[in-house]
Amino acid sequence: MRDQPILCLDRLTVRYGDFVAVDGLDLSLRPGELFGLLGPNGAGKSSTIRVLIGQRQPSDGQVTVDGLDVVRDWQAIKSLFGYVPDRENHFEEFTGRRNLQLFAGLYGADQSRVGECLELVELAEAADLPVRAYSLGMRRKLLLARSLLHRPRILYLDEPTANLDAHSVAVVHRILKQLTAGGVTVLLTTHNMREVEEICDRVAIICRGKLVALDSPLNLQRQHRERKVDVVLADGARRIFDLDCDKERGHLGECIASGAVASLQTREFNFHEAFLKLTGTAFE
After folding, report:
1. Where are the alpha helices (DSSP H) in the chain?
2. Strand order in 228-233's β-sheet?
3. pLDDT tens by residue, 219-246
4. Under 8 Å CB-to-CB from 259, ≥6 apart: which residues?
5. SS3 210
């Protein structure tokens, strides 16, 4: 059922010696959800992903995928997810098609999926070129194609649109939306704040291994936007009016009514500022 979580992190903790990288993280993702995981460098994103893809076991807590424990039931979980790493690991001397054929064999996927996935990411025309001739963007799209060969139920993506041009970004966004519409759950990390606002259903912001915010981009906008107006008066003076203050709101109305305002501009929601407010760290 789509309302039942497919991925659950219950007090997930990851330690490296005395250092706690992930500190009691609780998250639940639903089928068909496009979920953004954000945080400054060193926040614990990579350690969380490593647990999800089986590269590291939790130090404490539990992670389940479709009710299966990532430690106890790992063999059953492997076929349920796809993963797009932030660094490519293609076979450079092979063609794009041959790369996918090899992984289709490893996944036990039908070889017909190779052509389908190449078409999906718009690499069909370059399929028989060696990967060493691919641009950075083409390499990223080939990683995405590879992750989809076995029709995973959940997809983990680390910076999926890095090094992509505007058209390719739009292609990736379209693919992700198609996947989630079909019930696939997508968890992505990104440094692209506009991407978060445009495609994510919910966003979790973590800092120093702890969850500091969890909501939809729209609700985060409502909670953290500045309700202020920058005004240039007719005499050249500049003023800032706080719309949450009755007195200042009234004064602004008087200025407008009297014709004393030359120009005004509301402050748009700035995810970078909200991120800084929540984490005390600039997004890099």
Report:
1. 45-52, 74-77, 96-107, 112-120, 136-147, 166-181, 193-199, 217-224, 246-258, 271-279
2. 238-242, 228-233, 261-266
3. 887 776 667 888 999 998 999 988 888 9
4. 234
5. strand
Quickly tell me which residue has 């008066």 as its tokens: 233
Asked if 198 and 161 count as a contact pair (C-beta separation under 8 A), the reply is: no
pLDDT score for 133: 97
- What span, in angstroms and rounded, lies between the C-alpha atoms of 126 and 282? 39
Whole-angstrom Cα distance, residue 169 to residue 4? 30
CA 108 to chain centre: 28
With both helix axes pointing from N to C terminus, report the angle between 136-147 and 112-120 in degrees, rounded to the nearest 10. Answer: 130
Contacts of 157 (CB under 8 A, 6+ apart): 83, 84, 144, 147, 186, 187, 188, 189
Q: What is the pLDDT of residue 40?
A: 83
pTM, entire model: 0.81
Residues of the chain with pLDDT under 50: 284
Q: What are phi and psi of 219, to 5 degrees?
A: -70, -35
Q: What is the pLDDT of residue 197?
A: 84
| pLDDT value for 271 | 58
For 258, phi then psi, to 5°, come to -85, -5
Q: Which pLDDT score is estimated for 114?
A: 98
What token pair was written down for 206? Answer: 């973590």
**Which tens digits make up the pLDDT trace of 121-131?**
999 999 999 99
3-state secondary structure of 88: coil
Q: What is the DSSP letter of 95?
A: B
